Amino acid sequence: MILVRGGTVVTAEQRYRADILCGDDGQIAAIGPQLEIPGGCTVVDAGGMLVMPGGIDPHTHMEMPFMGTTASEDFFTGTAAGLAGGTTSIIDFVIPDRDQPLHDAYLDWRFRAGKACADYGFHVAVTRWDERVSRDMALLVEKCGVNSFKHFMAYKNALMIDDPVFLHSMQRAAELGALCTVHAENGEAVAFLQENLLAQGVSGPQAHPLSRPAALEGEATRRAITLAGLAHVPLYVVHVSTREATEAIAAARLAGMEIYGEVLPQHLVFDAGVYEGSDWLAAARHVMSPPFREKAHQEALWGGLVSGQLQTTATDHCCFCRGQKERGIGDFTRIPNGVPGIEDRMSVLWHFGVASGRLSEAQFVAMTSTNAARIFNLYPLKGAIAVGSDADLVVWDPCATRRISAATHHQNVDYNLYEGMELTGVAMKTISRGKLVWDDTKLDVLRGAGRYVGRPAFRRKG
Ligand code: URP
Ligand code: ZN
Ligand code: ZN
Ligand code: ZN
């Protein structure tokens, strides 16, 4: 048992002084002022600290096979890095091979994730349409705890689907009480621009943002929302990076649609300038999709978060080391797309959001944990501080600072996007289902201690 003593509890709704007793079953057993210390209980001092629900990162790609290589971060190292930054759960993506049945792919991912040291769940990607896919979607929702399906409108000749496939999948998800998620960029237009740029001899990483203009994200987001309206299915747009997409989501919500939007802290911090300059590797290390944008888009993303039109923050944590990025020397379309971020998400959002005065503490909890738990039907098991909820907690020092470096991070990747930044707001201790797994600078994690968390289907309307 662990007693978290003397802290200020902050949730998405409340702020109060209380102790929290975490039971041996991994759940919160009691909350109250000055709780008695049961025999054999470890006391964790949270004096002067905030105690918040552990972070939920609803968008990661651990050990993902992608663009001819495999993401360097595995489920063990990735969840360990998350714990070091206060994130206690992830939702990763099952990506079926070309003709692989969805349920087989799900079993592959369950096997891979068996080494995780924090809790995890899965979205499953739909990359084609046939009867088997339709049947497997039902199996996944009804028997396997999957309530969200992923769709890529980009990555032509790989993961991309067309509108009819998207509609079939949306219709099926609606029948099953599942949610659709989408990577919204017009992949046909991206492929066209990539070809043009290469034909003109523009082959370095600076071509990456040129091939993926903001308008193509706006168009795809509007189209995805239109299709979701036809299929009457809730839609969650991952990694929203533009004003156009933010406005499309806000307009749909005002029209009464159930549409959600996710923001990556990376898009809040870095702009298109990262692709300039002559350092090939520095630019390639920022190659992700959607790319980093002009500064004006960042203001729209902040506005979307502050107003609640965009609800969650995730990292899209997808790591490639130098040798992997270098696959794209001479052809930017071969640079594996993806950047790291899981360890630093909470500090970055605190520093640039709360410490800068844009966000309240409660909004921070909502955006790093509670909203994702609600949207993906994990609440109040996760995302809450309540008796019976999982004892996933972060003891947070709002004033402490930390300098970020690849030399000291726990992520299994050879660079850190935030290298050298000094951030205010630090996860001092992390408790994962009742175990103290991160204490100041010390990780104490067990390979395989993470648990698969199934997520029930949503109640169907009408
Ligand atoms: O560049 C990215 N984002 N790589 C991971 C796959 C995806 O699109 O989310
Ligand atoms: Zn199953
Ligand atoms: Zn994506
Ligand atoms: Zn992703």
UniProtKB/TrEMBL annotation:
InterPro entries: Amidohydro-rel, Hydantoinase/dihydroPyrase, Metal-dep_hydrolase_composite, Metal_Hydrolase, Metallo-dep_Hydrolases_sf. GO terms for molecular function: dihydropyrimidinase activity; metal ion binding. One of its GO terms (biological process) is nucleobase-containing small molecule metabolic process. CDD domains: D-HYD. It catalyses: 5,6-dihydrouracil + H2O = 3-(carbamoylamino)propanoate + H(+). The modification N6-carboxylysine is found at K150. Its EC number is 3.5.2.2. Carbamylation allows a single lysine to coordinate two divalent metal cations. Its cofactor is Zn(2+). Keywords: Hydrolase, Metal-binding, Zinc. Residues 50-437 form the Amidohydrolase-related domain. Pfam families: Amidohydro_1 (PF01979). Belongs to the metallo-dependent hydrolases superfamily. Hydantoinase/dihydropyrimidinase family. Homotetramer. Catalyzes the hydrolysis of dihydropyrimidines and of the structurally related DL-5-mono-substituted hydantoins, to produce N-carbamoyl-D-amino acids. This is D-hydantoinase/dihydropyrimidinase. The gene is dht.
